């Protein structure tokens, strides 16, 4: 008798569907976050979400609810303290402090919850194979809300990210927009963490996005490219982890680096010979 | 826009400890091309930022066509002295497209926006740069793209901070011609700062020079 294919199991079908959903989010929000130079925030948000999930475990709520609430609160305060683009150092300080505080609280919640071991592992590393129907439904709702928010904010967000001084001269507030954006990013991070785990979820946001930005594409193409990259990583990672028995986040994070290197190689190949000569002469 | 004017009512403007304007009260017509002069650090950039509502006044009232800056700025195009370089890896055309109705909600129609952006780049002689990443442009090229971005929403009043700074003599001429064309075709008025002499002799638009010196605007 031949071995059953990986698509025949419902949990595997759920996993592929879940990966599709978070790739939509991780790819697009990740591209915007990298464009806005918020890689550290992308790293911090899911970790903050982890603490919320830990608190939810303690209080017997679904972890995803805690994760969404905590990362959104984190995003809100990170955006609040982001005093315009004049003080990027200050912004990173706030992000770091919020991250540290929330991780501390998370550890305490897990301690109180007294069921640390298995739950913590699930929260940190994700549980893509354990997705049930209701969780998938919740995830789909999150993705839809988040993408609708991005679509609504699209023009002012791009305007303030590409041409901040012109946008401010037209009356846009970089602080308020940044805050709204971080709220959306927090939602996305929570959703991604459900699949890839708090520890590695930002690799799904950062890897494909960094490759797409490296390719110097326009925003629309960049986001499409980034989403496709995220899909490649998560689906490819699922298949590979099925056959290799190595956890999914491993494939996602290394695959992200691979995508970036590929983009670098592509860009090197794209330069015409005359230009390369010029670069060498300078 | 015929009869554009600027009114200052007891305006004091201060940044840090530096006083830029001291109780200035004047009415200034902005018809045609107005050139704001003043030595380095006189406060020209700060004054223009105050006109765009980006710098709060210490006291007094500033009105453009009878309206405060935060209301009037929707009809103004502002080009800062230092252009933004926040997303150098994105192509020039995307940077111009982002400025077209950038304050509206939602997603624009990509094709229409692209056509408009191309027309703007053509106007400022930068169409050949459309596909290049912004970060690789030379100073003068960047300036031309910045001007295209400033023109994005068909402003009635252009406020340009040192638009000639990085341009070669030929581009100088071309820019002055563009100013004249904008004024004749759309009635656009301009308030610019400049340091060097400008060949404005045969230009078919009214020209006025004002000087900012020691906290006073000399008209
Ligand atoms: N945020 C600030 N805090 C303190 N001082 C400032 C600030 N911004 C500007 N200044 C000072 O105000 C003065 C006027 O600056 P401004 O940029 O307006 O000069 P400018 O006339 O445009 O000069 P330039 O011809 O060199 O462009 C300068 O001495 C500058 O150092
Ligand atoms: Mg200046």
From TrEMBL, chain A:
It is found in: Cell membrane. It is a multi-pass membrane protein. The keyword Transport applies. The chain crosses the membrane at residues 15-35, 47-73, 93-110, 131-154, 180-207, 219-242, 248-267. It holds the Pfam family ABC-3. InterPro entries: ABC_BtuC-like, ABC_TroCD. Keywords: Cell membrane, Ion transport, Membrane, Transmembrane, Transmembrane helix, Transport, Zinc, Zinc transport. Its main location: membrane. It comes from the Bacteria. Signal peptide: none annotated. Involved in the high-affinity zinc uptake transport system. Belongs to the ABC-3 integral membrane protein family. This is High-affinity zinc uptake system membrane protein ZnuB. It comes from Bombella favorum. The lineage of its organism: Bacteria, Pseudomonadati, Pseudomonadota, Alphaproteobacteria, Acetobacterales.
TrEMBL record, chain B:
One of its GO terms (molecular function) is ATP binding. Residues 6-219 form the ABC transporter domain. PROSITE patterns: ABC_TRANSPORTER_1 (PS00211), ABC_TRANSPORTER_2 (PS50893). Keywords: ATP-binding, Ion transport, Nucleotide-binding, Transport, Zinc, Zinc transport. It comes from the Bacteria. This is Metal ABC transporter ATP-binding protein. It comes from Bombella favorum. The lineage of its organism: Bacteria, Pseudomonadati, Pseudomonadota, Alphaproteobacteria, Acetobacterales.
